[in-house]
Amino acid sequence: MLAVDTGVVLAGRIFGKPASAADARAMLAALAGQVHEVVSGLCLVASGWEVTDSETTRVTFRPLAAGDVSAYLETGEWEGRAGGYAIQGRGATLVERIAGDYLNVVGLPAALLVRILAERLPGVYGFGNSRKSRPRSS
User: Fold this and answer.
1) Helix and strand numbers, DSSP H then E, in the chain
2) Catalytic residue among 5, 23, 53, 68
3) Would you state the pLDDT for residue 120?
């Protein structure tokens, strides 16, 4: 079983999912022109073992005018999104720079997940120390 939850952190303040458009507007206004962190906690449970870990990606928003925020809110894309934006959609227009795992910002820290699987199941996913190399069938 895999569980992941993502939050946005700006200067020690945690932004979860906005409860309303007004809440999303306040979040986006605070993030405008700032560097924030997107933090995802991951828990992977399998037969006989479990791993918990987290991944952090730094995202820089470009400065946003009130019209930029209003236009984005009208898309409805902010609903159910930590920090009030979805980088994989129109929210990408709010972003100036990203440092780290893009998929973590989307909501699944894929690089972290692959690393854990490679460590726990070497060779199974084609990563890590293979138990024995097997030729690929055509």
Assistant:
1) 4, 5
2) 5
3) 87
The residues, ordered by sequence, that sit 6+ positions from 71 with a Cβ below 8 Å of its Cβ are none
Any catalytic annotation for residue 5? yes
* Distance of alpha carbon 63 from the chain centroid: 21
Which CATH code fits 2-120? 3.90.950.10
Burial category of 84 from C-beta neighbours within 10 Å (exposed 0-12, middle 13-18, buried 19 and up): buried
- What's the predicted TM-score (pTM) here? 0.86
Q: Cα–Cα–Cα angle for 10, 107, 110, nearest 5°?
A: 115
**Nearest-angstrom CA–CA distance, 16 and 98:** 19
CA-wise closest residue to 31 among 17, 13, 19 = 13
Q: H-helix or E-strand containing 113?
A: helix 110-120
Integer-rounded Cα Rg, in Å, for the chain is 18
pLDDT value at position 64? 97
pLDDT tens digits, one per residue of 40-81 = 999 999 999 999 999 999 999 999 999 999 999 999 999 999
Q: Token pair of 11, please?
A: 């200067």
